[in-house]
Design brief:
Blueprint: E1 3-7, H1 13-24, E2 29-32, H2 38-42, E3 46-54, E4 58-59, H3 61-71, E5 79-85, H4 97-108, E6 112-114, E7 117-118, E8 130-131, E9 134-135, E10 138-140, H5 149-159
Parallel strand pairs: 1-2, 1-3, 3-5, 5-6, 5-10
Antiparallel strand pairs: 3-4, 7-9, 8-9
Helix pairs in contact: 1-5
Length: 162
């Protein structure tokens, strides 16, 4: 089964994390969303989407256009996993909302999203990426907890069923 890591990155942090995930999944392709076509997306069985959160809880800019393309495709047979970056200290009430927005769009299409992680060990007040006591994917804070990124990635990648 083929796997792709698609990411949007404005300042480089999300690309940095995508590259770290790719290092643990070398068989996967790792591509920025701003250059993708529908045919490229359709060739993968497993799709990992990575975005940061901008402003007061918005998706990263490249995802604004990419989401329209993604949702126009029939991806009902695909498996998805999400990772998101946010800042727990400066934006504790919108932490990783970009990842949450992606999740809700995928769920509206009834697409399968895997790779939920526990909210334990995080310090935030609110997040659209939280469902019950879990995040809808891998939540990372490169601004305040870069020392936890590698461990969290390793655990998450190991838990993915693809």
């Amino acid at each position: 089964m083929s796997t792709a890591i698609f990411y949007g990155s404005s300042l480089g942090n999300t690309q940095f994390v995508a590259d770290k995930i790719h290092a643990r999944m070398p068989e996967a392709d790792c591509l920025p969303v701003n250059d993708l076509t529908g045919d490229q997306i359709l060739k993968y069985d497993n799709i990992i989407l990575g975005t940061s959160t901008w402003g007061v809880g918005n998706l990263q800019d490249d995802f604004e256009l990419f989401v329209d393309l993604l949702l126009s495709l029939d991806l009902s047979a695909k498996k998805f996993a999400l990772f998101g970056l946010g800042d727990q200290q400066t934006y504790p009430d919108t932490y990783c909302n970009g990842m949450g927005k992606l999740y809700h769009l995928l769920k509206e299409k009834d697409w399968k999203v895997l790779g939920f992680t526990s909210v334990e060990g995080y310090d935030f007040s609110e997040s659209e990426a939280q469902v019950g006591d879990e995040f809808v994917g891998l939540a990372l804070d490169e601004d305040n907890e870069p020392d936890l990124t590698d461990v969290r990635i390793a655990q998450w990648v190991k838990s993915l069923p693809f």
